Amino acid sequence: MNDNKHRLATDATPDDHQTADEKDGFSLSTEEKHDVEEKQPPRAAVLHETIRLQGEEELGRSIPALGWSALAAGLSMGFSMLARGLLHRHLGDAPGAFLIESLGYPLGFLVVILARQQLFTENTMTAVLPLMTHPDLAKLASLLRLWSVVFVGNIIGTALFAYGILHMPVFDHATHEALVGIGAEVMANSPGQMFSKGILAGWLIATMVWLVPAAEQARITVIVLTTYLIALGGFTHIIVGSVEVLYLVFSGGAGFGDYVFHFGLPTLLGNIVGGSCIFALISHAQVRGDEA
Fold this sequence. Notes:
single chain; mainly alpha; globular
């Protein structure tokens, strides 16, 4: 009898001794389970909290700090126009020229984001999440203060870049014509198109802001692909577009009123709607829904 019991025990299959967790997949060591956990993408709540904390930090910065950083960002964004214009000047009408010249568009974004300079359209996402998480008048006032300082600093930077590039004896006539052509292309849109395309640009920038913390080593790829799509679609971005249109204005190809009312206001509103009212709101609602 005892021999039969021993035989039954030794004949038991490995599955009879497996835990419920092991039956769900491969049996892993503690170290391997830790490796699996590290390779999991962060939850939406983790991304939300990461960006919210960045927003809290930005809301607490002083006006001079914000202003100088925003000025630097406006100047840096000028390189998106310049890179695209130089590529257009040298590619001419070559097959696929537009696809290649549009690769110059992400340059300004790479400089601004990697250098952590203040870009207005990034803050339509980053600085809004603290207000959505804890809505009160103090947070709203801090957000409006941040937006005002950063927007003014960005626009001054774009104007200085456009004016400087136009008047410095650096580029030939063909390059000048290429840069003027970029501004004229933007102004060919109606105000309604400026607004609609601005929504898509704002949405894409907010998407980029959401993805970058999770991208780690792929940050540059995320930035390039997202902003390259803005260039391909001809979507309107208030900061890059300001460099392009102000270059046209300073060249005598458009009036300052055209810049403000035909391009500026519709594009600004579109970027805010796309970045804050759509993407940021939906992302925040998603996290709140997971907590419910």
